[in-house]
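>> received
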Amino acid sequence: MKTSDFFYDLPEELIAQTPLKKRDSSRLLRLDRKSGAVTHGVFSDIKESLKAGDCLVLNNTRVLPARIYGTRKDTGAVVEFVLLKQKSTNVWECLAGPGKKAKTGYEFKFSDNLEAEVLDVLPDGNRILEFTPKGEFFACLDEVGQMPLPPYIKEKLDDKERYQTVYSKELGSAAAPTAGLHFTTEMLEELKAKGVNIAYVTLHVGLGTFRPVKVDDVTQHKMHSEHYCVSEETADIINRTKQNGGRVICVGTTSCRTLESVAKEYGEIKECSGDTEIFIYPGFEFKCMDGLITNFHLPESTLIMLVSAFAGYDNTMNAYKQAVEERYRFFSFGDAMLIV
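>> returned
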């Protein structure tokens, strides 16, 4: 299977640049993965597609305001850093640009309350920075940090919270689990009242989620690593749902990757945490997920490959063709799909 098999033509004006005023007013394309039938509606209609006894699995990660600009102490040069992964207290792996201005030993000032030194330059070009905050690190970061929006979003985001889900809790992502951006607190309460179980996993999304597939043969692509956590309560809810004949509906590819990683590793869903590099593409055998709520993804991305693995290649590409024809909004701030 070739990477080019997952290409589709997308007019640039269909890439959503800003979120809608109401989270649940996005459009919703419903795809029946058995028949391939496609229907259209509004995201708030999703309540009608979920049944009592189903389980909705949400990724409760919270996005760091991870894009920060530092001034080099010796020359005044400005360098952009994006925090990727915490290595230890106040030590982070970061992207840096321009990298030639951020060599080992260089010191940077981000504000009166936050400075850092480059400890190391990794083989892939990422930097290891040790920060010196005056006070609590995340409070200092919040003062100066910007949301690390994907490169295809050119508009400024006025409200940081619109790149967070309403249930975000565990700080650590470099990107939002965007399928969850459509949910409101009221909608989740209505689903609970209907008898839908709500379970939370944590997977801290890395910027590798936007990394293009650069090989022709899909199977040769190397996935980035992301940290996940599944609580005992979540494992119990999911296992009980399965035992009672309910469906496990993942909100977003990150929730899917978490559950399928655990099921592949342990043969069941259980309390655990770790790092996953799971790559899901057509031919993958799903062990846990019965349904998926997701946004529309970039051509030739690992995310559209995951969707194709679950919904079927022909069904997926046909649904995307229809979404373009119907002028859906695409990518992070765009519209949604429900696949069951």
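>> The chain has a mean pLDDT of 96.
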